[in-house]
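Sequence, please.
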């Protein structure tokens, strides 16, 4: 089952359809659009730097799945959290910025 989303603008409930918009400087904006009122909500913004961090996250997950020693697993979790926090810090202002722009 696909996740449902309620539009913050008109209250319409619908399936989430994730769309992507590629901008200049290799910036990719991920957003959902309300089928009823066309209101857009930005969910993610990635730059090449952010995508390289996301790639690192996938590598860590992979290594974690194979880790046999608890010490190594703990180190991977610590790194995962560090990279994840970094992605959030980088992405948050970009999401706010794109959200202000996307419905204009
Ligand atoms: Zn709507």
């Amino acid at each position: 089952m696909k996740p449902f989303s309620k539009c913050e603008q008109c209250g319409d409930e619908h399936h989430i359809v994730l769309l992507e918009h590629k901008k200049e400087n290799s910036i990719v904006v991920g957003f959902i659009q309300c089928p009823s009122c066309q209101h857009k909500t930005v969910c993610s913004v990635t730059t090449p730097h952010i995508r390289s961090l996301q790639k690192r996250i996938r590598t860590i997950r992979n290594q974690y799945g194979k880790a046999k020693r608890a010490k190594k697993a703990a180190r991977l979790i610590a790194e995962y959290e560090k990279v994840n926090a970094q992605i959030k810090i980088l992405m948050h202002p970009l999401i706010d910025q794109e959200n202000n722009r996307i419905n204009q």
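The pocket of zinc ion is lined by residues 7, 9-10, 12, 34, 36-37, 39 (CB under 6 Å).
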